[in-house]
Every structure is written in structure tokens, then in C-alpha cells.
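Extended Data, panel c. Modelled sequence:
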Amino acid sequence: MTDPHLCTPSGAPRARALGIPFDGSPGRWNAITDVPGVEVGYETLVMGNDVRTGVTAIHPRGAGGAGDPVTAGFHSQNGNGEMTGVSWIEETGTFSGPVAITNTHAVGVAHAAIISWTVRHHPRLADMWLLPVAAETWDGYLSDVNGHHVTEDTVLRALESAASGPIEEGSVGGGTGMTCYGFKGGSGTASRVVPYGAGQFTVGAFVQANFGARHELRIAGVPLGAELRADDPMSAEPIPPPGAGSVIAVVATDAPLLGQQCKALARRATLGIARTGTSGSHFSGDLFLAFSTGNPGAITPGACADDGRLDVLRFVRFGLLDPLFEAAVQSVEEAVLNALVANREMVGRQGRRVPALPREQVAQFIAQRIRRS
């Protein structure tokens, strides 16, 4: 059996396979699905010369738990992007149902499809009201972003396929047509286990990485952008500007947290992507969501009758949050690098080509750095 820390289910290498050192202790699969209950599904569209897109679905409590709200927080590092449902998250520190991530011009379709899925599987929840969470990054360099190739059925297939366990990375799901630091980017994930008292909690991250200019790239603190400056066809294109594109990060944990604590956790995604080199382009929508699956059943969805009940939340003490913050930073950083390492070169719309990260060169640079230290 292959080691899920070193390769994806299809056998693509992950960042650890190149000898890249990481801090912290990963979970069983080193994935967001290490957080109990979290499920991830993909639908990947690669058709002809112009379609390189798809959808990623994340169920915080599994498909069966959509009616049980999670506490949550949102952070916008740079607002040139879209994530629906965040007004309610900001208001209440909660949301219900799945999260969908796709391309920029398919956000409305993803939003509508989440409603269709909920009507089908959780009609009582749908009868109240829904504010789905759908997010995007722009894949128009490699894909026909205006072609309406992502349909409600596309999103529904992603939602229905979601499962726990190890998950694919690279050019899959919503990350299919994405680029990162001038290399092929896309979907990546990682996790960390955090001791707490006599037990432990898990923090997991999922990123749709579509950001960064080539010269910015750092791996394990090593500035490799200049070393890897060759073969950068995107630098000759006026659209998108260098560094543009966007990144969505979803951070999950089973640690019981308040909404405000989740918001603080979401802010740490900024530090995770910064470790990979980016300074945050004006044309990059860098939007981060964090949620906690702790306190199952504690929040009464849609309650408006005064029955004398009080909802009760347990939460980690504020003074003990730092290990969770550290785990979020580490997981986001590794998730970005996994998205890069697991990828292959892609040719798409108008014959545009995006090279894969040169894994052998990266491994050599990292090995040299380790020897010197």
C-alpha cells in the first residue's frame, strides 16, 4: 500500500516525496478529510482544446450532516474574488450545508446547485432558507471561462461523489485549470494533529491555488523563483498580470470553536500562503473560510419559537488557540506545495501551455539546503 503522505491515490507525488521538510505532525491522510466527518468530492472537466475546469465539493459534516450548522469564520486578504454566504457567516459565525469551489463565472451555477442538492437530500433545511457557500478562482488562461461548461449537474456530481479518506490533488475538481507561481496549480490539501489535554484535535486545509508570480516562489524558506525562472510562458501574456488569479483556502477542525475563533483561524491562512512567497497581488482574490465541526447538534437551525431552550457551545480557551493557529499555517503552506508538486504540464485554450513544477530540480535544491544546514 502506498504512503498517502508521499503520493495521491493515483500515485502522483506529494511535496514530502521531494524531501521538502515540514513542521508539525500530519494526520493519517495528511488531508482535510483527517478532520472527522469532512468529505471531499470532485468533478473534473477536460474536453477538447478549450475546457479545463471543474468543481470541488466539501461537506463539513459529511453529506448526511448538512442540516447541522457548523461554527465558522471568514477572512478576505484581498477582495478581488467571490465567496457567497459570507454575510451570514459574518453575522452569526455559522453556516449550514456544503461548500463548492469552481471557476469565477460558475459561482452562480454552483450556488443554485447546492440549493438543488439540499432540496433533494435535506428538504426540511431547504424549506427554511439557504445561503450556500460557493467560491471561485479564475481559470480563463487555460479554459473557456465564458462557455458555461460547468452546469448544475456538474456541481451535483461533485457533491454526490464526496467521500472521506485520501483525496487527489493537482488538476482535479475546481482546480483543474488553475495556475500557481507560473506553474500548473490547482487543488491541494494537508493536515496537522494538535495535542490538547489528554487528547488531540485535527486541523486540515484545502486550497484552490491560482496565485503568485514566478519570481516570488519560496519552498521551505528557500527562494526558488529566480532559480526556476526558465520556461515561464505566462510571463509573456498581458492577461492575467503576474501574480493574479486568486486562492481559496478552507480550514477545518474538530476543535470546538466559537465563530470569532474560526475567523481568527481563517486569518492564519494568509500566513500559510505567504510562506510560499506571495505578497498578494491586487488582481488576486484571496478568500479564506474556517469552520469547526465541534459541538455537533448544539446550534438549532432556523429556530424562531421561544421554547425556553438555550443553545450551548463549548470552546477551546482563547489562551490555548496558538497550537491550532500554527497547525493552520503549516497545513495551508503544505497544501499549496502539494497542489504544485502533484501536477503535470497542461495545454489548454488557444494552445496556451503551463509547465509543471520541475520536481527533480526542486528536490535537488532542497537537498542542497539541508546538507548546508
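The chain has one domain: 15-298+317-367. This feature is highlighted in the accompanying rendering.
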